[in-house]
Amino acid sequence: TCSAEGGPVCDEAHVIRDVGEGVPLGADPFGALVYHEPRLGVDLLVVVELGDGGVDVFALDDDGVPTPLGRIALDTPGYLAPVYVPATGRLLLPNKFFNQITSFELDLESLGQEEGVIGVRDRRDLALPVGISSGDYFRRMVRVDNRLFVADRNSDRVVVLDALSETVVDSLPALPGVTGLAVAPGDMLVVTAFDNRRLAVVDIASGRLLRVTGLTRRPYDVTAVAPMGSGLRRALITSFTDHRIGIVDLDPASERFGEVI
What we know:
By secondary structure, the chain is mostly beta strands. It has strands at 29-37, 42-49, 54-60, 66-73, 83-85, 90-94, 100-107, 119-127, 139-144, 147-152, 157-162, 167-173, 178-184, 188-193, 198-203, 209-214, 219-225, 234-239, 245-249. The relative contact order is 0.09.
């Protein structure tokens, strides 16, 4: 574990704690999630491997040190960063290659029955109503209360699902090549589009497009931040092709709202 000041290099001067040997993962680990599992009373780290459809689950102690609990074999490649829905206790994983979202509940009764293996209960493969059955299309998913927003690069839309019923309830027009989504303070959804170098800010409640900004670089993903006590609202955009991070003003009262600053 390294301190933030370490930058891209984790040298000895910036190591907070050495947790020992690394834990081997499956092929191409691509997404991770930390959430509190109330049935166990601990925080879990879930790591999804895009290459082989594996999901590794770890228990985190009070210092954040992971202990392997087991592995879920979904047998389908292409899964991305998962989302946890507290109201249902289910994990949902969008798929990069197939037009679906896989949903399931961890089968905690399976822990310890077979070494290194965790089962799932009530698995569902939810077909999205847009796009085609297969193709290399990035899908990013975020949760707002009991709604899920899915960036579908194939359809150039953001699909909205009810997280309780796991059904599609709406879709929002986005931008050609939409790849990234982030929830920002003020009930805003920030959308990045790789194919046409655009950023859009959408009002979540109404679905209204607040701002579209042209970018000089191709954005891939985005996160929104509001540093404590600063009063600032910012979006950080990753660029897939030139290793840079863009900073966008997300203050609706600012003259540069929605612009790279």
